[in-house]
Design brief:
- The protein is mainly β.
- Helix 3 packs parallel to helix 4.
- It folds into three domains: 18-32 and 39-78 and 87-110 and 180-318, Metallo-dependent phosphatases (Purple Acid Phosphatase, chain A, domain 2, 4-Layer Sandwich); 342-554, Jelly Rolls; 567-686, Immunoglobulins (Immunoglobulin-like).
- A seven-stranded mixed beta sheet has the order 1-17-16-15-2-3-4, with helices on one face.
- It starts with 17 loop residues before the first strand and ends with a strand.
Length: 688
């Protein structure tokens, strides 16, 4: 069987790339027939200056780019991304959603993306948190590019964090005070340098330092909004032979420009800002094993949006390149990170979905009275049956966020207790992360609070803690868990053994707690827990504080639904498995039906040469598949209790020797109280 090869060219002497101006007849004549027929490994969409009310121009050019099936979108600034359900953001998001999860997006900020030289906060929230603004249609006076709306936030799997680099970039975080926003990333042996909007001596020195350091890329491409070539050329002037920069892409002036200096090509996009009053354009950068090719799509001034011209090749460059591999999502960190000192504790890793907890910030200002003090609305007190019951109170002195937090305390006696909330309507066999901030009053040298957070993926306490406590006054309920040793017979169930716990932490000021678990029911229980040890009478205060609690759906935490070395038996109940190949579109589709609802699915696949096909035909039918025999996979996709499934395979590179494509469909289903991965028998389709 065949695997697509991936290699990196060592970067020696900066001499691996030789760039040619496209369109020269001699260059075309030298191209061999084999090279002309070779298919690209992958592609990149390049757009610029989308700050226009002429939505039709943006929509038309983005739709044209979608047909090229890019793996990534780069934007050289002035986005006019205000509301994700209005142009231009809506059209660019539709371009990103050609696959699931959406493809990555990189922005070299423009001057209209800044306010007082600071990148606009709603762009940073979308880029690093996956939180977008939607226009509700109601108008209000305030800030905005041209006008403002009353907006609401939205997030979820289809509202992506833009890329792994900005997700962890300090200046791109929503709370950051300012830049620089520049960064470097590499994909497929191409190094991209994303610059800040304006040229400066500091940025010039930074770029020159980066490009003069050898790396394993074959070509470097610089992205910057401001297009003044005299300034941009200073990045490479005098460094001839010591770098591999071959292309600088920019925007800003709304006119197409092409210029060469110092062996580097400088291209400025006309962008889409002028609509019918000027030319508009967009580009696709095709990546082959031995070259790059930049094609331009032109929508001429005054022409209808259906009159897109091209593609016209405007630049080519030789080099050694490899397939696109999407890097790991740096926002999905380990579910149990090592403890950090409270003074340096960072926020839990950002995620893509909304907070599923009611009143997770404790800031809706509704507190209901119970046997021992006041509890935040939506949350239940709990403590050990027969043990000491701590008092719950409203904290206002040192909130972690907002204005209020929860204080759980008692004088002279240790206790075991906390808060919990049942979240109903979650999807079984998806992953969820619980995060919280807390600290324990340090009135002793070693307080040993045994503070932690937990998730019960089965929601076993849903009935005992089931009354509506979102309002004051709230109905009575039984707060105690576990057996009281002072009473005959068993009392109440303890905290479930199925609970997945975070590590214990001992913070003297606000610090993070975090745990993740796969839901095994449609109810999941979030638990805040503390169990300090009893201390001498001269150390009488036992106080735990909680704030900023969130439960969010997170992407599947591993690359596959099954371990790499797993032998998976076929689920005979899976039916109607169909594999369809559309070679001209470089895609294949797999459809199948499962006997039970499923929460996540994936397809594993491989290419078979003639010998592998013969071995399969001689070997009879299989009863299991080995995951390691299938080197390729689609991303894990979440589904909502689906029985019918559809998954697309992107066939960016088909090995020359491949005779067949073979695929296996996987679906994650709740069987009893356990999630199990169901596998279809392999299906095959001819490739030639």
């Amino acid at each position: 069987m065949l695997r697509s090869r991936r290699f990196r060219a060592p970067f020696r002497g900066f001499d691996l790339a030789v760039c040619l101006l496209a369109g020269i007849a001699a260059s075309a004549a030298r191209a061999s027939p084999a090279a002309a027929e070779e298919k690209p490994l992958w592609s990149i969409a390049w757009i610029s200056d989308t700050q226009t009310p002429s939505c039709e121009w943006i929509a038309a050019l983005c739709e044209r780019l979608k047909a090229d099936r890019p793996s990534m979108v780069i934007h050289t600034g002035d986005v006019r991304f205000e509301w994700a359900n209005q142009c231009a953001w809506k059209d660019v998001l539709n371009l990103l959603r050609i696959s699931s999860p959406p493809i990555e997006f990189h922005l070299a900020p423009g001057n209209h993306d800044l306010t007082n030289d600071v990148l606009k906060s709603h762009l940073r929230r979308a880029a690093t948190r996956g939180v977008y603004l939607l226009d509700t249609g109601a108008k209000a006076q305030g800030r905005g590019y041209y006008h403002d709306r009353v907006t609401i936030d939205i997030s979820g799997p289809e509202w992506p964090v833009w890329n792994p680099e900005v997700a962890v970039h300090p200046a791109w975080q929503p709370e950051a005070p300012g830049g620089p926003y520049r960064y470097v990333f590499e994909r497929g042996c191409i190094r991209f340098i994303v610059c800040d909007c304006y040229y400066s001596d500091e940025q010039r020195d930074w770029v020159r330092d980066v490009i003069a350091r050898p790396d394993d890329s074959s070509v470097t491409i610089i992205l910057q909004h401001k297009h003044e070539v005299d300034q941009l050329a200073a990045y490479v002037e005098g460094l001839e032979g010591r770098h591999n920069v071959k292309l600088v892409l920019s925007g800003d002036h709304h006119n197409y420009c092409y210029e060469e200096r110092h062996g580097v090509t400088f291209i400025t996009s006309a962008g889409m800002a002028e609509g019918e009053y000027k030319d508009s354009d967009a580009f696709t950068l095709w990546v082959y094993r031995d070259r790059l090719r930049l094609d331009r799509y032109l929508l001429p001034q005054g022409r209808p949006v259906t009159a897109i011209e091209g593609p016209k090749t405007v630049w080519e460059c030789e080099g050694r390149f490899s397939e696109y591999r999407r890097p790991p999502d740096r926002t999905t960190a380990s579910s149990s990170p090592p403890a950090a000192a409270a003074s340096e504790a960072a926020a839990p890793a950002p995620t893509l979905a909304p907070n599923l907890l009611f009143n997770g910030s404790f800031d809706n200002h509704i507190w209901y009275e119970r046997y021992r003090g006041w509890s935040p609305s939506g949350w239940y007190q709990w403590f050990t049956c027969g043990g000491h019951a701590p008092e719950h109170a409203v904290g206002t002195a040192v909130p972690h966020s907002g204005k209020e937090y929860v204080r759980i305390h008692m004088w002279a006696y240790a206790w075991r207790g906390g808060l919990l909330q049942n979240v109903r309507g979650v999807e079984p066999c998806r992953w969820y992360r619980l995060t919280a901030y807390g600290w324990f009053a340090r009135t002793a040298e070693n307080p040993e609070p045994k503070a932690r957070v937990g998730l019960d993926p089965l929601g076993r306490l849903r009935d005992q803690f089931g009354v509506d406590v979102t309002k004051h006054p709230a109905p009575a309920y039984n707060e105690c868990v576990g057996d009281d040793p002072k009473t005959p017979g068993p009392d109440w169930p303890d905290l479930p053994e199925s609970t997945v716990w975070s590590p214990f932490h001992d913070y003297a000021e606000w610090g993070p707690f975090e745990v993740a678990a796969e839901a095994r029911s449609d109810v999941i229980t979030a638990i805040l827990y503390c169990e300090p040890r009893q201390r001498p009478a001269e150390e009488p205060i036992y106080e735990m504080n909680w704030d900023t609690v969130a439960l969010r759906e997170i992407p599947w935490p591993t690359r596959r639904l099954v371990p790499e070395d797993a032998a998976v038996p076929f689920e005979r109940g899976i039916a109607n498995v169909v594999l369809t190949v559309q070679r001209g579109m470089r895609t294949a589709q797999v459809t199948w039906d499962t006997p039970v609802p499923c929460g996540a699915s994936q397809v594993l696949y491989r290419f078979l040469d003639s010998e592998a096909v013969k071995e399969l035909e001689d070997g009879g039918s299989l009863e299991t598949i080995r995951a390691e025999d299938f080197p390729f996979e689609t991303p894990v996709a979440y589904e909502r209790s689906a029985r019918s499934h559809w998954m697309e395979i992107e066939l960016r590179t088909i090995p020359d020797e491949a005779e067949e494509l073979q695929a296996v469909a996987l679906s994650r289903a709740l069987i009893g109280e356990e999630c199990r991965t169901l596998s279809s028998p392999p299906v095959r389709a001819k490739l030639r």
